[in-house]
Amino acid sequence: MPRSMTPRVPTHHRRASAKIPRTFRLAPEKIAAAQRILGTATATETIETALDMVVFRRRLVAGTAAMLGVEITAPDQDDP
User: What are the extents of the domains in the chain?
Assistant: First the structure.
């Protein structure tokens, strides 16, 4: 996905929560690739953005599933 089309949530829009230190063994090339794709400045921001996107994806899938069977019509269509 081109960098300009990458959805990003500004840090100040994320819910504030307590941060706790964690240690992970991650492949540097995966972090670097994700950082380039997401346009993030740090590994921490990259991981937080990726996790935000996973949570958003789950919510999007759940919302779409909840709408199954719901008839959606364009707002400009006349009611019969």
Answer: 26-55
